[in-house]
Design a protein that fits this description.
Length: 414
């Protein structure tokens, strides 16, 4: 039986935390406990001054000269190189561009081109819906050339056969936080002669990722979650260098051209990963993302992972201790090494409970129909905040404080 935990234990964990100082690098509103860094990372203090400089000096004074003078044109590859260190890739294998959804479209087509006789894209029913929509849209566009085969995880091995061009999986399940075994499933994919496409949206920056060591072909990841790049930050694309020469992505925009400023008539792709760019890069968002990545790079993902596991472990132990019998059902794996950096619980009143927490300045998120997600970002969350959040949660359910019409109203974004 685990020892009974007290508030003092959480205080002691913060004292012993060698990453405690990193919180000072972030702006967090006084009194707010932020448990949603997995949906929108917090604001690094360095970001606003940096953006003001980019806006006032580079844009305001530099005007169009800044594309060269301040290297705006190189930002997508530079940010990609900085992210490469978090995903076990080389600096010339990652580029920051567009959203994950758009990048999945490009990579699916690139993969189908590499496997001309094959028509099937395999994925999981629990994968992020937008990833699946992109396959559906492509299948609709290419009538007959592509089919989506979505299965449960326990049917995955059977689903990967010689008709499969691509296996598209998420490293961390966006609902349950369950971590997929990247090495094993990439190997299974390759045994069938298929291309492995991983979505690392919920793992990059909190779980060490080894794209090279796992021999992954393609990957995409999110800029605005644990990398703290800000709302709408662009995502990144990884393609293994061994495939670069044969890559053909379908969106032939000028920024993916070998010589965009020659304005030639025909499309000629840029060498390597740069060809995944399409249109003009979002300079302000790229500057913000670079700032977010810099903060994490200072401590490295190994230390972030260790603290993340300690945070999710404390959360689950406290839920067992404080909220047993209150209708919560753990939806995440119990073993810390099998989950990412969020924990999820099912509860019949998940939506009003989430709203009641938010009304008390504790911010989780809700995923329909009945899931409460608690993102525990190791870069800035304190152990004491986990204690305070769980004890507040107990009070909300114990005293039915969620039972309020105000909390039942659904907003556009949940
Ligand atoms: C957040 C997230 C996305 C986001 O996709 P965008 O197109 O960049 O908005 C995609 N996939 C997964 C698994 C995610 O968690």
């Amino acid at each position: 039986m685990a020892r009974y935990l007290t508030r003092h234990d959480a205080v002691a964990m913060d004292r012993a935390d060698d990453l405690a100082g990193l919180r000072g690098e972030f702006f967090l509103p006084e009194g707010v406990i932020y448990l949603d860094g997995n949906s929108l990372g917090a604001l690094p203090k360095a970001t606003a001054p940096r953006l003001i400089d980019v806006i006032e000096q580079e844009w305001g004074h530099g005007l169009i000269r800044s594309w060269n003078v301040h290297g705006w044109v190189d930002l997508p590859l530079q940010a990609g190189a900085a992210i490469a260190q978090f995903v076990g890739a080389d600096s010339d294998e990652v580029v920051v561009t567009d959203s994950i959804s758009v990048n999945i479209f490009k990579l699916l087509v690139a993969a189908l081109r590499l496997r001309p006789g094959r028509t099937v894209v395999v994925s999981e029913l629990d994968n992020f819906p937008s990833d699946l929509y992109m396959v559906q849209g492509l299948a609709d566009l290419l009538q007959g050339r592509v089919q989506l085969r979505v299965v449960r995880r326990d049917q995955l091995a059977q689903a990967i056969d010689e008709n499969v061009a691509v296996v598209m999986l998420s490293h961390v399940d966006f609902r349950t936080g369950e971590l997929h075994d990247m090495a094993t499933w990439t190997a299974v994919t390759h045994q069938a002669g298929s291309i492995a496409l991983w979505d690392v949206a919920h793992s990059v920056g909190v779980v060490p990722i080894e794209l090279h060591a796992c021999d992954v072909d393609f990957a995409v990841g999110c800029g605005y979650k644990f990398l703290n790049g800000g709302p709408g930050a662009p995502s990144f694309v990884y393609a293994a260098r061994r495939l670069h020469e044969d890559l053909q992505q379908p969106l032939w925009g000028w920024f993916g051209h070998a010589a965009p400023f020659q304005f030639g008539l025909g499309y000629n792709p840029a060498p390597g990963i740069a060809r995944f760019q399409v249109g003009t890069p979002p300079v302000l968002s790229l500057a913000a993302l670079a700032s977010g990545v810099e903060v994490l790079a200072r401590v490295g993902v190994e230390r972030l992972r260790a603290k993340s596991m300690a945070l999710t472990d404390l959360f689950i132990r406290l839920m067992e201790q404080e909220c047993a019998g209150l209708g919560f059902e753990l939806a995440s794996p119990l073993a810390p090494e099998r989950r990412g950096s969020h924990v999820a619980y099912r509860h019949a009143q998940a939506h009003p409970i989430a709203q009641a927490l938010i009304a008390r300045d504790i911010i989780p998120d809700f995923r329909a129909p009945d899931l409460l997600r608690f993102g525990l970002a190791p870069a800035y969350l304190r152990f004491i905040e986990v204690w305070d959040a769980v004890t507040c949660l107990r009070e909300i359910v114990d005293d039915r404080l969620w039972d309020n019409d105000e909390y039942r109203r659904r907003h556009k974004v949940t």
